[in-house]
Amino acid sequence: MMIEAVGLDADDTLWENERFFRLTESGFAGLLADHGDPDQISRRLHDVERRNLSRYGFGIKGFTLSMVQTAIELTDGRVPGSVIGQILDLGYEMLSHPLHLLDGVPEALGMLEGRRLILITKGDLMDQERKVAASGLAGRFEAIEIVADKTPAAYARVLTRHDIAPERFLMAGNSVKSDILPVLELGGRAALIPHELTWQVERDDDPDHPQFHRLGSISDLPGLIERIEARG
Amino acid sequence: MMIEAVGLDADDTLWENERFFRLTESGFAGLLADHGDPDQISRRLHDVERRNLSRYGFGIKGFTLSMVQTAIELTDGRVPGSVIGQILDLGYEMLSHPLHLLDGVPEALGMLEGRRLILITKGDLMDQERKVAASGLAGRFEAIEIVADKTPAAYARVLTRHDIAPERFLMAGNSVKSDILPVLELGGRAALIPHELTWQVERDDDPDHPQFHRLGSISDLPGLIERIEARG
Question: Which of A131, B73, B165, B232 is most enclosed, with most CB atoms within 10 A?
């Protein structure tokens, strides 16, 4: 079976992302240290984020708004305006953090040269475009697709737009929920590239599915594709 | 000259948008009535929005963050957390307001049936997708393109992706800055459909350009296209 196109996730697959959220969370907990220990504060923040997902979607602006809301809820509205200002600054810093490519990424993309590669990511349009530009990798991809959420329908639209048959498509990323399950549902193949920090919302058990592959790192991706194609 | 495809802006071209921002602004000024009259407060908010555009981009989440920041600046950090909570609620309401199509829109799109129509809008991905779905108009469009900003480069990418020659493309919308100038720059045609409320940042003088057309309303669009094509 020839693989016609390879989809690649971006955050925590090509470059660090969750690490910056964790750093920001710990700064946030520090600002509210009088109102709970860091773990309690993180749990409250995660609850608020989860409640807000359907309204704010993914990305740093929604995360910043969720931090502000958590600070208000944790303090029963007594949080000083100056602390809210510091929370806005934390969000601002995230929007301008430098980009750190993950180990092995340029080499793996180099080995995939000549293949149709599509970057498929979700979150703030503007922030994702900034990161793609800063990565210097844009030229490696036939297309950059930024979607509101990685649902089966969103993947189906991307595949239709680029005229790719699902059974000849392989998606690689660090999230079972976003990169693996929806693609398997469409009849495609999916390769999990684990990242030590993966947001809870994105985690799920490995599926028991013949089209699912678990890799050690992105360096294993070119070899996986060759083995799939060699099997015919 | 045949028009191969027509681009349509969404906010304040197909449906009301600025009206909801103005209503929210007046609610915001009401919350801060002790710190200035509504005009002063709006001016401060617009300044903050403008400063934040390069970081937050367009959309309701960035606007909400700018309201929070303005409240902090206006009160020298003394704004109570409870008022910040009310500001978050204002933003939340905007994200769920019902959709109001503008007069004449379904009729005009009906008259354009059979033509390639592409909706081209900017702002929050998730919020724009919600509005497109709520409008019931998605089926009228060959494609929905949500871009971070309406630059000449962004239009060029859309035209390339859909294989449309710029000189056979006509863009229609209410913003000289976003819908008209970048398309003229690419060699396309552009039709201004004025809306009584247009955000200051989007306004500019009518260009003196042979490919520019000013319409009275969207109802004039089908006739304009016929006249352009009849001229050969």
Answer: A131
pLDDT (0 to 100) of residue A142:
94
Is residue A69 within a helix (H) or strand (E), and if so which, with residue range? helix A60-74
Q: What is the mean pLDDT of residues B186-200?
A: 89
Displacement of CA A77 from its chain's centroid (Å): 32
Nearest residue in A to B93, CA atom: A55
Q: In what order do the strands lie in the sheet with B189-192?
A: B143-147, B116-122, B5-8, B169-173, B189-192, B212-214
Q: What is the pLDDT of residues A164-186, one digit of tens each?
A: 999 999 999 999 999 999 999 99
Closest by Cα among B6, B18, B23 to B175: B18
What CATH number labels B5-16+100-230?
3.40.50.1000
Residues of B in contact with A89 (CB under 8 A): none
Q: Which residue of A has its CA nearest to B60?
A: A56
- The pLDDT of residue A232 is 65
Return the domain boundaries, chain A: 5-16+100-230, 18-94
Distance from CA of B133 to the nearest CA of A (A): 13
The CATH H-level (homologous superfamily) assignment of domain A18-94 is: Putative phosphatase; domain 2 (1.10.150.240)
For an interface test with A, the pick among B67, B69, B75, B125 (most A C-beta atoms closer than 10 Å) comes out as B125
Residue A141: pLDDT band with limits 50, 70, 90: very high
- Is the Cβ pair A57, B126 closer than 8 Å? yes
- List chain B residues with CB under 8 Å of A96: 55
Instruction: Tell me the average pLDDT across B157-173.
Output: 96
* A147 to B125: CB separation less than 8 angstroms, yes or no: yes
